[in-house]
Structures are given as C-alpha cells and as structure tokens.
Description:
- It is a single chain.
- The N and C termini lie far apart (125 Å).
- The chain is 71% helix and 0% strand.
- The protein has three helices and no strands.
- The longest helix has 69 residues, at 2-70.
- By secondary structure, it is mostly helical.
Amino acid sequence: SLLSDSENSLYQTREKELQLAKQRDILQNSRLNAMFREEDMANRKRQEQIQKLMEEDDRKWREERKKRMMGKYGEVKSVEELVGLMDDERREMQREMDTKVNLAKAAGITLTLLEPTDESDYSSTEDNSSAAGGMINGSGKRD
C-alpha cells in the first residue's frame, strides 16, 4: 500500500508538472505569436512602404524617359497644347530666319531662305535635288 501511495503521489506530481508545462507552453506560445504578429505587421508595413516608393520612383523614371525621348513634346497632354508648341516653334524659327536675313543684308549679301511646305511635297527620287535637299554633281549622282 505504501508503494502504491508513493506511485500515486509521483503520478499526480508528474500530471501537475505536465499540466503546468502545458500552461507555460500555451502562455509562451501566445507571447511568441503576439510578437510574431507584431513583427509580421511591421514587415508588411515596411513592404507596403517599399512598394509605394518603388512605384513612385518608376513613375518618375517613366516621365523622365518620356521627356528625354520626346523633348518638350513629352509633357503635352492635349492637341491644343501640341498645336501651341508647334506654333511657338514656327514663330521662333521665323524669328531666327528673319535675323539671318537681316544680318546677311547688313553684310551686303542677298540671302533667300526656302521654307518647306509639307512633307508630302517632297519627292524621294534621286534627280529631284531641290526637294530632296541634296546637290547633284556633273555625273548626275548625289555628292
């Protein structure tokens, strides 16, 4: 009977230890889970911030590339803006031509500038040197 009481008491002690260990594990796991949730949330926020920064950087890079490739026309958002830019460019070219003509006159030179009318007026044949913009030498071939 003495042996059975000690076995019973030992069994109860082991059961209590197992019960306490399970409770400790549950408490520790809940603390770890909470810590991991906080860490996961922080990582998620950091990844969202990184994604936003990358998207913003990508947008800026695309705009910069567009400006580089298309020049001043890269920022055009409507047909009216395009027409306005083209008109400004024509006025600037005309002003430059007028300045060159006036400088040539002041130097005693007669300068005549030809203005292109339309791309469809140009011929791609070899013998049309004035429209194609080249010179033809005595042999009939382009220089």
